[in-house]
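Incident review: delayed structure delivery

Summary: a single-chain prediction request sat in the queue longer than the usual turnaround. Root cause was a stuck worker, restarted by the on-call engineer. No data loss occurred. The affected request and its eventual output are reproduced below so the record is complete for anyone auditing the incident later.

Affected input:
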Amino acid sequence: MKNKFFTLTGILVFSSIWIVFPQITSKKTTDDPVPGSCTIFSASFGDKVFFGNNEDYYKPKTYLWTDPATTENYGCVYLGFKNYAHQGGINEKGLCFDANALPESKLNPHFELEPPPVYEPPYEDYIIWLPVLILRKAATVEEAIEIAGKYQRKNWYPDSGAISYQLNFADAKGDAVVISVDENGELAFTRKKKDENYLISTNYNKANPENALEYPCQRYNKAEEMLEAISSEKELSVDYFKSILDSVHEEGVFNNTLYSNIFDLKNGIIYLYHWHQFDEVAVLKVNEELAKGSINIRIKDLFSQETARNASRAYIVSIFLLCLSIVASTGAMVAVIHYIKKRKRKTKVANNL
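Output delivered after worker restart:
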């Protein structure tokens, strides 16, 4: 009976190490791997401007929806999670954004500035989130920067005076900027350099690298290596951007690339991939999607049943492995406690002899 117990304990310990250890060692400098590890980049060369993003997280239900144009707002197409949790988007003018998760960073409120606008009724109690406001009102990165600095910082939704993300914007002219918070709590604007064709952001603050989930970042370095290899307009293509996204995608128990998107900012085209499966693409034109009015659709429904099933299977396996790791860890802990108690009993008996 003892041999069976210790054999089972050994299996549980080994399983726990086998499942959890690769997840930890793959993110040696990550404080919390759960919030996601999105890789975002844009590049321009000649008459081409592309923007790419891997949405890395653990929630499988992802959506695409529209915010149609009005007399005051540009029309926008968004990607994200249910209940209109915007993660990224593009407007009819070719301005787009996505966000990287970061550890919390202090954000100065600047109450001397005018209050940010609120959503239309019946949501007038909610301030418009900054990137949503920018996509509604701005056509260029220059205009985005102006809007970002115009209002009190409530439109960042600071929690206890801090935020935990940065924003990456790009426009159809080829301009790009990462808006983050510096070490003093002020907005910082990291622009794409004039002598470079690309701008990248992952999970460290572009203005303050010490504010990081992962630094240095292997995904950043890989994307940079591949973007630096582009030397002509011909080499900048959707297929090449797809290969970069594939090279830096995530697969694991705690984190997966749920979807990937490439925006052709000059032509207003969205190339969408589901659950790091890059052999099938959904191609959407921004103007055509906006012409449909208000839509809200699961991203998986844009793909074949086979691609959707493959994603579902992969998710089920990841959940199974996560549960197994929890069981294994719990079993290992119980075994250690049992061993310690047994040693104490033996020591007590020996001392009484």
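Verification: Helices lie at 2-25, 130-137, 141-150, 218-228, 238-247, 286-291, 305-352.
Action items: add queue-age alerting; document worker restart procedure.
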